[in-house]
């Protein structure tokens, strides 16, 4: 009918996996998150958050892989397109690094227009130690989520591996994480990767259920 907006009820939900990784730990978790999300049948769009440090500085940090990302660079437009966003970032003193904050600072237009209001978000991270920001890195990002009207989806203890205590590993009710050690020599454990894959599935199914119900209205 004239004047009515046509809704494509067959459209798949879009899940954006948006992450920054300095040494590859977050990148490894991201691949498991992507795998889990894809298993649900949603459209998964991975994005890398642009590096802001110069090559010379990264070389002194024994890093630099972030200058040649595997995926397209994240933009505010990519965030707006998604029904759900899974954000991945290492911790810097219990909060996200400057690279992620730089992306946040570019979303003023989305804030002004309400472009992210009502969308869903979840988060995964990497820290140096067992008590180095697995939860605070998420909670200190909540102001950004709140100002944009994003709805946070935690995983709780929906996977028993979140509460595993037999070995050093990451993970919390807020989302997947890993322990990298202060020199970065540790890599995500099998449990870390399993929780990350679970988060991708859990979040994507959550968002898909909402989108299906919204389109049926």
TrEMBL record:
Which Gene Ontology terms of cellular component type are present? membrane
Signal sequence bounds: none
Q: Which domain of life is it from?
A: Eukaryota
Mention any Pfam family matching this sequence. FMN_red
Q: Which Gene3D superfamilies match?
A: 3.40.50.360
In this protein, which residues make up the domain named Flavodoxin-like?
Answer: 15-203
GO molecular function ontology, one term from the record: NAD(P)H dehydrogenase (quinone) activity
Coiled coil ranges: none
The record ties this protein, via InterPro entries, to:
Flavodoxin/NO_synth (IPR008254), Flavoprotein-like_sf (IPR029039), Flavoprotein_WrbA-like (IPR010089), FMN_Rdtase-like_dom (IPR005025)
Family per similarity comment: Belongs to the WrbA family.
> What is the name listed in the Swiss-Prot or TrEMBL entry for this protein?
NAD(P)H:quinone oxidoreductase, type IV
Kindly list the organism's lineage.
Eukaryota, Fungi, Dikarya, Basidiomycota, Agaricomycotina
């Amino acid at each position: 009918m004239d004047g009515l907006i046509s809704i494509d009820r067959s459209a798949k939900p879009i899940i954006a996996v948006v992450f920054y990784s300095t040494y590859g730990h977050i990148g490894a978790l991201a691949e498991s998150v992507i795998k889990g999300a894809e298993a649900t049948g949603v459209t998964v769009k991975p994005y890398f958050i642009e590096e802001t440090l110069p090559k010379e500085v990264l070389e002194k940090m024994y890093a630099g892989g972030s200058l040649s990302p595997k995926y397209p660079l994240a933009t505010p437009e990519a965030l707006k397109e998604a029904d759900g966003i899974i954000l991945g970032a290492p911790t810097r003193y219990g909060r996200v690094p400057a690279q992620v904050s730089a992306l946040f600072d570019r979303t003023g237009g989305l804030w002004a227009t309400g472009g992210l209001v009502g969308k869903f978000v979840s988060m995964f991270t990497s820290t140096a130690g067992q008590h180095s920001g697995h939860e605070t890195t998420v909670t200190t990002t909540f102001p950004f989520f709140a100002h944009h009207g994003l709805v946070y989806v935690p995983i709780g203890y929906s996977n028993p591996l979140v509460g595993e205590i037999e070995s050093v590993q990451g993970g919390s009710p807020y989302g997947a994480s890993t322990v990298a050690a202060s020199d970065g020599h540790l890599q995500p454990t099998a449990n870390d990767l399993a929780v990350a894959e679970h988060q991708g599935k859990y979040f994507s199914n959550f968002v898909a259920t909402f989108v299906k119900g919204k389109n049926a209205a």
